[in-house]
Amino acid sequence: MSTILGISNIGRFTRIASTIQPPVVREVQPVAADIGALGLARYQLLRLRDAINEAKEIAGSSRVGRDGVVGINSSGALSLDNSTRAALLESNAEINTAPTSFSPFGPAWTGLGTSTALATIGGVYDGSGGTGTLRFEVRRGGDHGQDRLRIRVRDTDNSVLQNFTIQANDPIDQVYNLNNGLTFQLGPGALVRNDDFTLNVFDTVGSVVSTSNPFNGVRNANPNLDIGESVTGGTLTINGVGITVGAADSIDSIITAINQSGAGVTASFDIAQERLVLTQNTHGATPTVFIDSDDSGFASALKLSGAVVVAGKDADLDSPLVNVAQFQGVQSGTIVVNQTAIAIDVQTDSLSDILTRINTAQTQATATYSEPPQRVTFSSDLAVSLDDGGTGFLAALNIATGLFQAGRADGVSTSRNRAITQTADEVTRRLNGLLSAAAGRDALSALSTQLTGILAEAFASQTNALRGDFGLSLNSAATASSVDTRVLARNLSRNATATLQFLVGTESSLGLYDKLGARVDQAINDLNRQLGSAGFIVDTRA
Is the predicted pLDDT of residue 12 greater than 50, yes or no? Predict the structure, then answer.
């Protein structure tokens, strides 16, 4: 691409200061007219920028085969899933599995308001009365435990559901059963005739556990565990670490205790699924979550007893070959790298294990994995000899077997060479079209001056017509550039390192495409301002 003006040697362009200097920007002075010419110039500048960006991308992604080095790559990208996952153990059902519900657990008497024998509601509503409101009425008052009391229960349509007689000699904690699955108890105190309370029942709304209420909470402090479940004082042991559980603790407080312990897991509560989740802090297939023992009832109440651990996952790179889709056809055996035997066991060895074994076995070759794209490369200063040994391992890596000698040239592949020269030629063509359009137009004289100055600066101010070392040149009037694709292709085959450094630079220096691209961007911005000030609508995002 002929924008390198008469370069006499490579060194002066490849030995660039370690600190990248920002490109010098020349302001284009506003011009008054010829909006059409300015618009055309802007269009051509945009196309030139596209060509520069494409050329830079292709040249910048090219790999150079250096003298005395052979590299054998996977011919196609591998299909590895290198995501990881931590093991987890979660409740195998909702903490409270009841499909119906009621509230409140501890209703307050209303009416005269003097009843002090508080009621506690329990049981599981069987849904027989649908969704509605039950009303409990005191029909005969007195002191609980001393007098004969009577309570009537009415359903939603005010029909009598049941009548209960509480005898004077009934135990103070006697449980009275309704015929819909619910129960009630009366605490110590008195009942006053005509006092009542209401209870809401739901046949399609499931019961929900309270994670903040204490395990020994009563009435409205009830944690609402499944019927028959309770948590008392004891020790829950996870991954060998004991967590103390008290009856006055709650699900929330035990979650905090687990997370502050050394069990190596994180506990959380999934509100939507009403499950406790224990997640291993370390990702991978080996670290697990294990409940060693529990004498507090916590594991049972939280439905962790009998729950199955969902194993973690290693990246495919670190997983045994037998577990990785890419290597399902591989068999245990031996491959040979530069006459050195490398054993493979698909049941235990991962790709990472095998590459490490190759690199530590004095094979005089280095095996590396890189992404993206996912590829394995065997490289050596001398040669690489590969034998699959009937394992199918190298075939699974998309790597051919045989003897590969190091090349002598410092060059890129034929296809990459062709792409670089073609894009360089396209940049030159776009640049010359722009200079040609600017010639003889007063409105674009500043732009033309700027661009020729850019070219002169990019070529170290040498504007002679001699072809440069890279096959690029600018004529003595600095009005047209050219590229000798044969010369450029030859240098990409024999001296690719220096040629690519000139075009795309290094980590510490700008290349020709960087310098030219920066100035083209500035020229586009200048034209945007000129066109805008002239009342011409410009999409500055282009």
Answer: no
